[in-house]
Protein: Xylose isomerase
Organism: Effrenium voratum
Amino acid sequence: MTRFRTNSNSIREEEITIGVITQKQAALEAWPIGIALQSSQEKIEFLLTVPLFQRLPQDEHPVVASVCEICRFKRMDPIIRQGARGEEFFVIKSGQADVYAAAKTEGKQEKIASLKVALHGKKSTRCVPHVRREITLVKVPCCEARTLSEAAFCEQWHELCADEPRTATIVAMLAPQLQSAQGFGVLFCRSEVQALKIKRSDFQARGSRDPTGTRPGPDRDRDLTGTGALAQSLGLHKKLKFGRRAAVSSNKQSFDKAKDTKAMRTNENLWVIGNLEDKIPAMTAVMWKEYVKAGKRLITEGDMEADFFYVVQEGKFEITVREELMRDWPATEHFPSISKIQFEGPQSINPLAFKYYQPDEVIMGKKMRDWCRFAVAWWHTFNGQMGTDPFSNVKTHLRPWDVDASMDTFLTRVDVAFEFFTKLGVDYYCFHDVDVAPQGKDLKEFQANLDTISDKLLSKQKETGVKLLWSTQNLFSHPRYKDGAATAPNFDSFAYGCAQTKKMLDIGKKLGAETHVFWGGREGFATALNTKVKDELDHMASFLKLALAYKKKIGFSAQFTIEPKAREPTAHQYDYDAQTVIGFLYQHGLEKDFKVNIEPNHTTLAGHDYEHDLRMASALGMLGSIDCNAGQPYLGWDTDEFPSDPRKSLLSMLIVVEQGGIAPGGNNFDCKLRRESTDIEDMFIAHIGGMDCLARGLIGACKMIEEGLMKKALETRYSSWSSALAKKVAEGKASLEEVEEYALKSPEPSTSSGKQEYLEQLINRYI
Ligand code: XUL
Ligand code: CO
């Protein structure tokens, strides 16, 4: 049996349950029992419910029927992938397929249509096009589709299927004066629009009728006669946009060749086919003139079955494009040299491609994107201060969009950021209030600015599908917070901090933030000599309780997290590390309402291993989110570098997988480019590298868990805790005397190896 392998970008064999695509003869043999018994007549009858097939000459019906094959797709199985060449053509027999398209600017998949069998109760069938498409199809319920092998496919169908979905709706209008629109020759107005029409089918090329199914390919010689040949020689189907068959009325008028060709000559769109003068005679042979009443819809946006090309001779028409579609095309592209980042696999040396991260790849029951939940940190990427460090506030990252401190610049950065997110293929972002909006002359103005900016953020979120992982308030940069905010000796600073926090809870709710972070900024002290330590800690608890009460009051469902950091900017930060914060939360009865956001580089500032706090927080059920970054051991400060160490990523993602995921938190790249990394493309390279590093860690962690060797070693080491007495102790039911009695009876505890070296080497196996 000859298998038709689909293009490697297309459907992979294992993704099709029964969908073996065969050539004509093999197809018949391969039909499942039962279905194979279907008579040719039944198949023909079925195919004839499809408008496309209805147009085929009758003597071709048996040929087509003979190459049909039943295949089934499970829910969510891909049938055709966007951009794939596609070797087969599907007709849905039962069930429904959803059509998704990537937005023009990036790769977010948007559902644009559903293809069903029975529409409006009528027995009609939708064809799923098969040539290189701008759409991806996912069959929804279990459904059957019929497949035709490409070899047996006549070019007529190829051409029919190759048309793009309509991207605009065109409605005839009344025009009071002379107008010109979209390069069409619009001359003057009447109460109707006059259009010259070319019937699409007249331009279709016919393949030779070879009943064996071995038809000539598109490039072979054929009988170039009639209008089909004309279309083929002009290549019209590919070049022109056709309108829909339903628009044909009986209102056809004869075509005055001498007079009416003027509209054609003045139509710029028609010149795409080459020298028009030579082609006009052949074209006019298949054209007619039609009067279209004002208000009549000629072409419908999104229509998959377009049949006519229109040339407007007189009158005016209006083109409308759905607003969402318009928004997909940004007025200015800020990263014109960069397109949507693709997965190329571990062998790739392209710095602008993923080697490990495949967002939709399912691993241990979850998509990679859902395990990772990557977010871009606004403050390190778009706050306009990039390329500074503790020794220079003169930035080295000069971006064309960082014009000034005006609202316009901040608004432009929203476009920049969302273009970046979508091209990068990241699902989330995070920001502080001061990152996204100018602070204005006072708090009121700042709040108003935040309202304006968050309106735009919200519309961008809706447009792109990118979500807000977390938001927060910056209570540490402004001089009013020089002594802290929640722990400030000056109550007015505390109050200002509360006001900023309240606003950010409102904004977080508006934008659907999944988490809200409290990083203690300057909550700490430089010297205890001037500090009421106990009072300050109590004030911090009061501040968090005020925020919690407000969150509940407004019905904001985000999780609350505190981000520990041992030092910097103050010498002694209160939120030293995960255990300190968790202890503080328990002390103030906040442990049910807060978790921790762990930044591994902060963990190292506390003198712990990179993954220490992730482990601690997770073990105590308190790991809410991660600021995934790395540090520089040769510098003393928080360098916020992108993760690039696969071993560290493995150890981090292991903890995430072991606790079943990180939602509603995520992996936020609280990372910045080095001052020396000045190219715009470095923004992408750095994030791609970070995402890949963690994805690689995820893959390794899953393999490690699946193999179970690490777990086995751990269980062996603690096996004595499964004895009856040990369990009683663990449950708090034993007495000290009981345990003493046991010890008195037992021999000296045996020594068993901790196996550290073995385990360290074992980890390398998964990197
Ligand atoms: C500072 C830090 C902050 C928090 C948010 O070291 O990590 O960016 O993540 O305020
Ligand atoms: Co952080």
